[in-house]
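Slide 14.
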Amino acid sequence: MKQVTFISWNVNGIRAVDKKEALRWIDDESVDFLGLQEIKAQAEQIPTTIFDREYKHSIINSSIKKGQSGVALYTDTDAISHSSCDTVDILSEGRINEYHFDNIAYFNVYFPNGQRNEERLQYKMEFYDRFLSHINTLRDDGKSIVVCGDFNTAHTAIDLARPKANENTSGFLPIEREWMDRLIDEGYIDTFRHIKGDEAERYSWWSYRAGARARNVGWRIDYFFVSDDLKEKIIDADILDSVLGSDHCPVKLVLELE
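Slide 15: predicted structure.
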């Protein structure tokens, strides 16, 4: 058995993060899977200076709309297969790395934001449903599931600083929260809550406005979920809220795997 460390981070622009040298901490950490969201870059635009460590595999899935969305996965672990999961990301917005290794299907996902308009909220919910159907099919085929990323939804009132003020805001709407309930009801574990219980005032995103981060007026919208067959394999899960460089901070999962 070995401990495998996963990091997920919405960097809100990988070139902007590079200018701040905000990914350099990776050189000093043992990170087996690094999943980045909202890279806002094509593969050839990603600076070679983001960190010194040379991962064996770098999988970039960029949006067809330049300067938007995009995900990147870095690992030394060889894949059985990998894809951009275009049956879920039907608009090719660069939202998913699907990476199969051993008996695990690992997903690095930047879920849609529903705040722009009703049409995008509807797309977000349809994306959620397609994604859940996809991972359920893989689980039924015997795969263990690991999902990380920016879900763009705070699940419960403990997951944001001002729940009352945001009851009618996409990201905390009943329909979005109900999907998170369904994810859990169908056998997926919120690893942070599994380890930390009802620990309050722990957030992963803060608005750039009005000094929200300094005042810790935030939302927990970045998660690691695993299928319940991995429950006994969860060693640690945390929010790395001391890491700066984006309006999000990284989240972490450690599993004990064969």
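Speaker note: The chain has four helices and 14 strands.
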